[in-house]
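Our preliminary data section would be incomplete without showing what the modeling component actually yields. Below, a chain of 299 amino acids is followed by its predicted structure, encoded as tokens that our downstream tools consume directly.
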Amino acid sequence: MGNSASPMNSAAFLLIAVGSLLGLTFPLGKLGSTAGASPVVWAFLMSAGASVSLLLYRVVRRRPLLINSRNTKFYFVAASVSLVIPNILTFSVIPKLGSGFTGLLFTLSPLITLAISSIWQVRLPNRLGLIGISLGFVGAVIIAITRGEIGNPASLGWILAGLSIPTSLAIGNVYRTMAWPGKAEPMELAIGLNLAAASMLLLLAIALPGAKLLVGLPSIPIVVIVTVAVASVMVALHARLQFVGGPTYLSQIGYFAAAVALLVGTLFFNEAYAALTWFGAVIVLIGAALSIIAQKKAS
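Predicted structure:
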């Protein structure tokens, strides 16, 4: 960590790595859904697997376990809007919208983050930022109109559920920034968030009759292992990225996640999307780029 040339100190490296790993979770979630695992169980698998793995890593490295009760409210509120709600929605809509299309929705997170932070902090974006938000909204409408994969159009309800994902993530981005506990270590918060998410998801899995924990998982052991490994590395690097790059830079992981999800979905799952979907994605990216430039000029 002391070496400034280390990849772990490079926001660009961390951004690409976290975004790419996030993109892999979409097709992995599609495999889980195909095997019969419920969205709640799959989300639990990721949060529980990541938190347990990182806790064991700290024990092996003889690092102190800094999770404490004073941050409990932060853990549960942040976990609800950053992990529980978006993950359940994500793994619910993937079978209906396709992993690539779902990944595209994540590109809206930076735009919605900017809009929400402007409202909560009573700070309006400048003209360039407003143009970026407007373009992002137009792109989102275009993507929503195409309704997912060619030959497998989704209902308006599923589209709205999909659009709720970046909205929840954006709320989480703003909340974590405003409520970040003082002097807290990023890894401590990452483990605490995922433990809180895993506990809530476990209660949901027990309470919901159709979300039995072991249904589907024994039939895909390799996928389960890979998913836990991907989630663990992603969570660790995500915590480092928030520390190195800050929340604005962090919100851009959706662009790389969308690219990976679209590539894997197209190449390995035979997902096909209309030209209008791709056009909408380009409009969203242009809007996001303008918003990022506006934020840098304003800072």
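The chain has a mean pLDDT of 85. The chain has eleven helices and no strands. Preliminary results of this kind motivate Aim 1 of the renewal.
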